[in-house]
Design brief:
This protein is an alpha/beta fold and 242 residues long. Helices cover 50% and strands 10% of the residues. Strand 3, helix 6 and strand 4 (153-156) form a beta-alpha-beta unit.
């Protein structure tokens, strides 16, 4: 083999290796970090202050995610007797949670983690693909697992709403990928909810939402709370608090 051929042959081997090294050295969150920090830094600072000022209840369920978590004013009531920690930041996406998962979750001791995000697919040009959302979710879980390998992690199904009905098929695909991801990961659970928010015609039940047709009213939260509670009971009642 000539020196030229050897050089070409070596190049063929080196290029894929260099590509692999480059890909593995890049975090999935890198392309989201700047936008997330600009938008959510104040909220994260506020969370850190809450962590200093408030003492977490023993064996609490930690809730984090977007505005549906932040606006859940009856969370303590709906989840009783489970004690709760509420860390929702309104308008956030799976990508934002991926960027800040350590800051939000690591300061706490909890019995289980519950996640709800719903803003990655809204009908805008910068929407993520369902596969990208699922990949972010898996990253979030893997990051949680580095500190809490045994804690159950739950993700609530993205709710069908009138305001985002035009992209419901894409959201449904995302929900399926989230559910499949849960099935493949240890101690990770998908909370099905969408059937309770659809009427006999298979359309969103508008009576469960406020005027923006996106956020739930008290009736909606009652249903949500019941579904989440039942899933927690199903998984946690067979386990002793750790």
């Amino acid at each position: 083999m000539s020196a030229l051929m050897l050089k070409k042959s070596t190049g063929i081997v080196l290029i894929p290796l260099l590509f692999i090294v480059f890909i593995t050295s890049c975090s999935i969150t890198d392309k989201y970090t700047k936008a997330s920090s600009e938008k959510w830094n104040k909220d994260i600072v506020q969370f850190k202050q809450q962590d200093k000022d408030e003492q977490d209840p023993d064996n609490a369920i930690l809730f984090t995610g977007s505005s549906s978590i932040r606006l859940w004013s009856t969370l303590k009531e709906d989840l009783a007797p489970y004690p709760v920690i509420q860390r929702g930041f309104g308008g956030s996406k799976f990508s934002d949670l991926a960027v800040y998962i350590k800051e939000i979750v690591y300061p706490h001791q909890f019995r289980a983690l519950v996640i709800f995000e719903a803003n990655d697919i809204t009908g805008n040009v910068d929407d993520k693909t369902p596969k990208e959302v699922a990949r972010l979710f898996r990253y979030i879980v893997s990051t949680v697992r580095k500190k809490y390998p045994e804690k159950p992690v739950f993700v609530i199904e993205i709710t069908p709403t009138k305001s985002r009905w035009a992209v419901w098929s894409k959201i449904k695909q995302t929900n399926k990928l989230l559910q499949r991801s849960c099935a493949k990961m240890d101690k990770t659970y998908f909370i099905e909810t969408s059937a309770s928010y659809l009427n006999d015609q298979g359309e969103p039940r508008n009576e469960l939402f406020i005027k923006d047709n996106l956020h739930q009213n008290r009736d909606g939260y009652k249903i949500w709370g019941d579904l989440v509670h039942k899933k927690l009971d199903q998984i946690l009642m067979s386990q002793s608090p750790q």
